[in-house]
Design brief:
Layout: E1 14-20, E2 24-31, E3 37-44, E4 50-51, H1 53-64, E5 72-79, E6 85-87, E7 97-98, H2 106-116, H3 119-126, H4 135-145, H5 147-150, E8 155-157, H6 159-170, E9 178-180, H7 181-184, E10 190-191, E11 196-197, H8 199-206, E12 214-216, E13 221-224, E14 230-232, E15 235-236, H9 237-244, E16 251-256, E17 260-263, E18 278-281, E19 287-293, H10 297-307, H11 311-320, E20 329-331, E21 348-350, H12 359-383, E22 390-394, H13 401-411, E23 415-418, H14 423-437, E24 449-453, H15 460-478
Parallel strand pairs: 1-5, 5-14, 5-15, 9-12, 16-22, 22-23
Antiparallel strand pairs: 1-2, 2-3, 4-7, 6-8, 10-11, 13-14, 16-17, 17-19, 18-19, 20-21, 23-24
Helix pairs in contact: 2-4, 4-8, 9-14, 10-12, 11-12, 11-13, 12-13, 12-15
Amino acid sequence: MEQPGGHVTDSQTLVAGVDSSTQSTKIVVCDAETGRVVRTARAPHPDGTEVHPDRWWEAYLQASDGGILDGVAAVAVGGQQHGMVTLDEDDTVVRDALLWNDTRSAGAAHDLTEELGGVSAWVDAVGLVPVASFTVTKLRWLAENEPEHAARVARVVLPHDWLTGRILQQGNGFERWTTDRGDASGTGYWSAADGDYRLDLLERAFGRVVGVPDVLAPAEAAGATSDGVLVAAGTGDNMGAALGLTLHPGDVVVSLGTSGTVFTPHRSAIRDETGAIAGFADATGHHLPLMCTLNAARVLTAAASMLGVDLAELDRLALQASPGAGGLSLLPYLDGERTPDLPDATGTLSGLTRSNATPENLARAAVEGMLCNLVAGVDALRDRDVEVRRVLLIGGAAASGAVRAIAPGLFRAPVVVPAPAEYVGVGAARQAAWALSREAEPPTWTLEIDSEYAVEPGHEQAHADVVARYQALVSRTHGL
């Protein structure tokens, strides 16, 4: 498990970050001073949109088996956001956790939005608008559809909260359930602008107030194990990635994994009445305005399957087509969509003619469609006077040569691709180092850049036309 150059000296302080994602648990052990990754391990999670939290614990035990945590002085957990973990009076899990990508609460989201007075009322209250991803909507769904389970619920926590608690329980250091402001801001009943819970919204959703975890300060510890390992507050996965990337103002991250996200650090809360940008908090005491889509890297996988090629050949085909794919546009809502809020939508291929029906154009349309879905988030930030100095491209699809080449023109900004790393885990490790140091600011770790791509001159209008045609197709097809 030790990576090249991973020798540990006697004077080196080690910290660990745990990335408990939708698909797996990853553990990243770093040098607390420099951030250099010393060793890593991972274990899979079961597939699906609901899972018993015990499966996360089993994956954590599997990943940590073999001594990866030997010598570690502090640990923090970065977990998938929004998941609903319900506990009874004895802290026993009531039912399988509903994950962020479970859309069964779409109707509840609509109902809650209307009940409070519409989009503006929710933006004023908590900086975001309910969609099926958010915990508050899952609680309403539970109350309406599984009253026998709802009656047993004594408290609700998030995936990272639960795993942090289990680590402390195993280490005989558990005192209380805790969370951090970053992950709390994705529930729908905690306000990043006010820095406090909105228990009235929790009661509106669930019918009564249940216990919620204490919100820790960014560098505050959740506790310590009996053998002296400090357990930091932890945070949500996007906030962990922001910490791992050591972002600065003007750095906008576009993550192309299972989901797509656009986020950037900001000193103040952003109010977006469209609901596209969620006003999340970050893990440093500031804010992390963020847009999330359900569809990203798997759009390319689907396109490659449809063409009967692998991803490398899809890249080659896409780069042989001209900007605009000969008039083809793809709305990539293959799994429904979160932003825009279209949980029941399907993909749409528009503009198909005999003359443009080529593998090259279809491959190009898939790449452009996936990226245009995220361009909307970058432009929404610009619309709110957020600086976009450069785009940092991360996630599985960031390895695509076609994505790297096409992205700068569509985003209208230089694109940098950081060196491959588990940035959620690295960010959690950085938070652990911060809690260990008790300093006012997190340690300064250097981000390694793999490659950089400038906006190609001469194609500005062609790329603008791609985005405009995509936006027109969204409006025409879905009335947005």
